């Protein structure tokens, strides 16, 4: 520890001033600034930093002879011969004050030797203020996008941004970019990840896997779209796609049955076979034919059963296969824009309601046996092959039928689409091709 606060004199400088404020620095260095008393100065400074009073005793275990002699010279008395060396701080302060070395006492003397002392409480308060300023981009984002308020509060509380950015300045820069990205989502029309990153963050690689920006932006997208927990490259690709950001044009697909409008679709519809459309197909060469009514299901089991049971006589059907992909959204927007009425059915559970709500925010649809009355009717039907399962997860709303969420919460039972399969197939079988 250095005790020469003023530092060495510069070449050509005048003689060292005798006083440091009211402290006689040459005498103070000889009396208290010697190496043998560094331990004592460190203890006093530690108390100043901690905001503790400079009273009582401090001790040093196993002192050297030099350290004992230095204390003896400081206090003008023998310190004793025990295994430890004890010094009362009031006695040191009295010596410094009476001698005129430091009339203002021990705190002034240690400050003169070691430099200004910032109390720990003030340091912590300044640090917290700096971290608060670092998170201010979240406040501005929430004003623009209130639906992200819970996510922003969670980012503050769990310290994710702090761990990723490490310093207040870095976190402020990180959150500024992330919030700019989230303001621009969902992207409509869909855009490539590299192009989106270049436009919003100034670098095509800013949202590559593993970057802090990508980690936080993915977290925010899940809050926007309700995308379920998961991991892995495929899951990340689908999270991006749920907000219209594409890692590539071929990985995002949608499953269909009986759609027409291109030679390939006309052939599969005529065969009664499902077709898989990629985002590339939907964005590069959108088809112009749209049916008056298109039904939407959540699970591929429904579409497969419809193909088996109805074949080419099945009316148009689109399957989300869980969260709506970018391809599914592109297709449904296209159909809606061309005049198709969309009718949706999904699982009667919190995840199903969350998927339906995410779709409704992007594309208008009407319920297809997906109301509170339909849920209660499903509960009344017993199927030994598909016994009831308890409802789990976090409650969500059902804006297309506010009573539905209340009915689920009251009953506490989930009803998967598979349990409704006979009813859904009957609807499809009774509907004219291309009609309701």
From TrEMBL:
Highest taxon in the source lineage: Bacteria
Domain DUF2399: from-to ranges: 276-428
Region (Disordered): 1-21
A Pfam family that the UniProt record links to this protein: DUF3323
Domain Conserved hypothetical protein CHP02679 N terminus: 54-260
Protein's name in the database: TIGR02679 family protein
């Amino acid at each position: 520890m250095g005790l020469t606060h003023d530092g060495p004199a510069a070449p050509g400088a005048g003689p060292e001033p005798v006083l440091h404020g009211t402290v006689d620095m040459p005498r103070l260095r000889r009396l208290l600034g010697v190496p043998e008393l560094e331990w004592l100065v460190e203890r006093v400074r530690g108390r100043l930093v901690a905001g503790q009073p400079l009273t009582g005793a401090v001790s040093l275990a196993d002192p050297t002879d030099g350290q004992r002699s230095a204390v003896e010279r400081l206090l003008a008395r023998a310190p004793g011969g025990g295994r430890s060396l004890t010094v009362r701080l009031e006695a040191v302060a009295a010596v410094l004050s009476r001698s005129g070395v430091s009339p203002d006492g021990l705190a002034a003397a240690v400050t003169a030797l070691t430099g200004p002392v910032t109390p720990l409480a003030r340091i912590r308060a300044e640090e917290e203020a700096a971290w608060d300023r670092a998170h201010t981009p979240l406040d501005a984002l929430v004003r623009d996008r209130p639906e992200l308020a819970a996510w922003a509060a969670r980012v503050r509380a769990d310290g994710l941004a702090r761990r990723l950015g490490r310093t207040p300045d870095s976190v402020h820069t990180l959150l500024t970019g992330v919030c700019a990205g989230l303001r621009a989502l969902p992207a409509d029309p869909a855009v490539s990840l590299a192009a989106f990153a270049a436009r919003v963050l100034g670098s095509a690689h800013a949202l590559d896997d593993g970057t802090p920006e990508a980690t936080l932006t993915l977290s925010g997208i899940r809050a926007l779209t309700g995308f379920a927990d998961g991991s892995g490259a495929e899951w990340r690709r689908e999270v991006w796609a749920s907000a219209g950001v594409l890692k590539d044009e071929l990985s995002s697909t949608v499953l269909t049955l009986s759609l027409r409008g291109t030679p390939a679709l006309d052939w599969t519809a005529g065969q009664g076979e499902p077709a898989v459309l990629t985002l590339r197909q939907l964005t590069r060469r959108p088809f112009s034919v749209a049916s008056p009514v298109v039904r939407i299901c959540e699970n591929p089991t429904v579409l497969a059963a419809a193909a088996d049971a109805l074949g080419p006589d099945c009316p148009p059907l689109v399957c989300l296969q869980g969260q709506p992909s970018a391809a599914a959204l592109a297709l449904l927007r296209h159909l809606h824009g061309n005049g198709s009425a969309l009718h949706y059915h999904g699982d009667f559970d919190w995840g199903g309601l969350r998927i339906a709500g995410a779709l409704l925010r992007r594309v208008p649809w009407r319920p297809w046996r997906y109301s509170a009355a339909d849920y209660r009717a499903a509960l009344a039907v017993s199927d030994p092959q598909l016994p009831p399962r308890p409802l789990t997860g976090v409650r969500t709303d059902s804006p297309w039928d506010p009573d539905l969420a209340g009915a689920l919460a009251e009953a506490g039972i989930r009803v998967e689409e598979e349990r409704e399969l006979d009813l859904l197939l009957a609807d499809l079988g009774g509907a004219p091709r291309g009609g309701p």
